[in-house]
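Hi R.,

Here's the chain you asked about this morning:
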Amino acid sequence: MIDIIMRRKLFFLLGLIGFIILIIGLIKLVSGRSPRQGVLKVNSTPSASIFLDNKHKGRTPFEDKVDAGEYTIKIVPDATTTSLASWQGKIVVAPSLLTYINRDLAESELSSAGDVLWLEKITSSKSEISITTIPDGATFLLDDENKGVTPVAISSVTAADHTMSVTSPGFLPRTLKVKTTAGYKLNALIALALSSGTTNTPVASPSSSPTAASGQVSGSPTPKPTSTASVDPPKPFVIIKDTPIGFLRVRFTPSTDASISAQVNPGEKYTILDSQSGWYQIKYDSTNKGWVSGQYTEKVE
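And the predicted structure, written out as tokens:
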């Protein structure tokens, strides 16, 4: 009789342990399928509405957890400030990390400025910094030390507070206060605003948590593109047609969703470097390239 009781107790204990293991396994399975989240923080001047993949998320200043992944973010000023242009871009939110956006809205995307910063896990025990700017070819300074022209990648950066500055002729310089973290790369996309009085836009091609302060500004004029309406460039070329807004936007990629890199004027002529889906790639100054819509151009072969 005692053996039977002991066996029953043993079977009960084994069953209880198996049940506990099953519950723990189910919890891990469910938690593993749950979307991992990061933190999205957005500031703008002035305050504006925020849309992620066309879904309204709130207003700036904004900070909240969102599922990790890639998003199209749009910052839209209030109806009372319709003279200001909206801003749209692609961002990546990483699990358990912060993606930070700061945008100074202005009358056009070319005259606005802003920053997108995010961290990326690396194998190094130190920190790294990767800087991309709009326009590229801008001078980058880290703690007042010249680190070259953008895009710039710097390895073995001390994990500490730093000052980053970006300058480019014809654009307002921008300065950020950031904090690097050991074992992470700080990525930054910094867009500079055209300085006042600039008539044309030869801008180059694009693309726990970091912290950043507001940018500071002042600047100098930008030269005009070299192409003119009176001189025919090598064929094939395009002639810019009249547009409803008085100029034609040049974009980084052949899409209306792409960021604006420059603007060209009706009557100007530019050699075609490539074509894709009704878009033409042109070289709008001595060094910079971009895409224009064929809808507002006349091709000459």
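Residues 197-229 have pLDDT under 50 and may be disordered.

Let me know if you need anything else.
M.
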